[in-house]
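Translate structure to sequence.
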């Protein structure tokens, strides 16, 4: 009997991590042979230029995407032609789950930076997941996280004060960077302030003033798009308790 081929699990996991599929395979406890099945269906490293679209509204759900590097925004266009940013996607986060319900995309995914993406054909992913319970469970968790981010976005939009929306946005973004293994206190904003304004439902000038106020109060330090969160405790308070507490810094005056 011929020996089974030896699979280099460490190499496969490195490849998976490099193409940012760790959300799918690394936390799911997938074994070597099962990981190979996932590895086989991934179309690796498709280069995407800044401003390029992965899909548009009405496109069929053919694949889901994961950024190896770079970032994306998903945008909904109203009947009046107005743009609403409905989400941002960092490396390692799945893009394209908006089409799961109807089978067609309801928004477009636009590259915020030059990026490389892994393209995963959805029908093949579904087939492999049906054979691998651990992958199927992980996929359901990721879908749940996507729904959670949508709910968080709605939670931001109902906040009355612009400062609360901005603080909650920065706090949530920091946590997402932490979740993908990057610094939660020092990061570069891949999106413009205009994108942030469209995401938060605010005017561009309001967003700029909000960032300036947080910097003036020593909560953050901003240089261009580089952000340092200097007072995470205060940012958390502003994001979650602003309606219930008097501002700490005002009390120092």
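Result:
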């Amino acid at each position: 009997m011929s020996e089974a081929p030896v699979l280099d699990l460490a190499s496969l996991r490195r490849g998976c991590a490099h193409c940012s599929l760790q959300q799918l395979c690394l936390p799911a406890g997938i074994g070597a042979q099962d990981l190979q099945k996932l590895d086989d269906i991934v179309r690796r490293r498709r280069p995407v230029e800044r401003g390029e679209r992965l899909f548009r509204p009405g496109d069929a759900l053919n694949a889901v995407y994961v950024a190896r590097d770079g970032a994306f925004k998903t945008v909904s266009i109203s009947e009046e032609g107005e743009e609403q940013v409905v989400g941002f996607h960092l490396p390692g986060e799945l893009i394209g789950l908006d089409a799961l319900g109807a089978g067609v995309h309801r928004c477009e995914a636009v590259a915020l930076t030059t990026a490389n993406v892994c393209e995963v054909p959805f029908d093949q992913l579904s087939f492999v997941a049906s054979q691998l319970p651990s992958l199927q469970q992980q996929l359901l968790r990721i879908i749940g996280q996507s729904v959670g981010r949508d709910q968080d976005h709605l939670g931001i939009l109902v906040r009355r004060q612009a400062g609360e929306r901005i603080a909650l946005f920065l706090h949530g973004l920091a946590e997402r960077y932490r979740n993908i293994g990057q610094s939660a206190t020092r990061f570069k904003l891949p999106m413009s302030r205009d994108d942030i304004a469209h995401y938060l439902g605010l005017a561009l000038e309001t967003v700029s003033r909000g960032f300036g106020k947080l910097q003036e109060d020593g909560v953050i330090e901003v240089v261009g798009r580089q952000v340092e969160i200097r007072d995470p405790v205060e940012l958390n308070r502003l994001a979650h308790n602003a309606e219930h507490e008097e501002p700490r810094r005002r009390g120092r005056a």
